[in-house]
Amino acid sequence: EVQLVESGGGLVQAGGSLRLSCAASGFTLDRYVIGWFRQAPGKGREGVSCISSADGFTNYVDAVKGRFTISSDSAKNTVYLQMNSLKPEDTAVYYCAADPYGGYGCPMRPYDYWGQGTQVTVSS
Predict the structure, then answer these.
(1) How crowded is residue 7: how many other Cβ atoms within 10 Å of its Cβ?
(2) Residue 75 burial (CB < 10 Å; 0-12/13-18/19+)?
(3) How far is CA 59 from CA 13, 19, 51, 73, 123, in A?
(4) Mean pLDDT of the chain
(5) Pairing between β-strand 118-123 and β-strand 10-13 as defined by DSSP bridges
(6) CA 105: distance to chain centroid?
(7) Are 82 and 16 a contacting pair, CB within 8 Å?
(8) What is the pLDDT of residues 103-114, one digit of tens each?
(9) Which pLDDT belongs to residue 110?
(10) Region 92-105 average pLDDT
(11) Measured between alpha carbons, how far is 22 from 81 in angstroms, rounded to an integer?
(12) Which sign does the torsion angle of CA 90, 5, 109, 32 carry?
């Protein structure tokens, strides 16, 4: 059974940092791509970043490029999202999601499996 558990959210001041973790079980990272998505109040869910451990491909939405870094630890079967220089507009519930690896890279579209989400709040 595919399971994803996020952690690491919280309240931080603008300019601060947080590291989100996505612990995966029921599959290995080399066979799946992992994406981070977020949903702010009153807005739709948007893709933030994704990683394909099979080929090392990463992708970021323009709004977070240069501030967020996605990485994976195969030994721990965990994907991380390091978020630096946080802004109030980064406030959202952050979800990690998984999809079977499709042969190259990782798409920024809704995936099949989802975690429960973790709240990130950035105060100004």
Answers:
(1) 13
(2) exposed
(3) 26, 17, 7, 17, 26
(4) 96
(5) parallel
(6) 15
(7) no
(8) 888 988 889 999
(9) 83
(10) 94
(11) 8
(12) positive
* Of residues 64, 62, 67, 82, the one with CA closest to residue 22: 82
User: What is the average pLDDT across 54-60?
Assistant: 94
Q: Are 2 and 98 in contact (CB under 8 A)?
A: yes
10-41 pLDDT, tens per residue? 999 999 999 999 999 999 999 999 999 999 99
Note the pLDDT of residue 104. 87
What type of residue is 22?
Answer: C
Mapping DSSP onto H, E and C, the string for the chain reads: CCEEEEECCEEEECCCCEEEEEEEECCCHHHEEEEEEEECCCCCEEEEEEEECCCCEEEECHHHCCCEEEEEECCCCEEEEEECCCCHHHCEEEEEEEEECCCCCCCCCCCCEECCCEEEEEEC
Which tokens go with 121? 């709040």
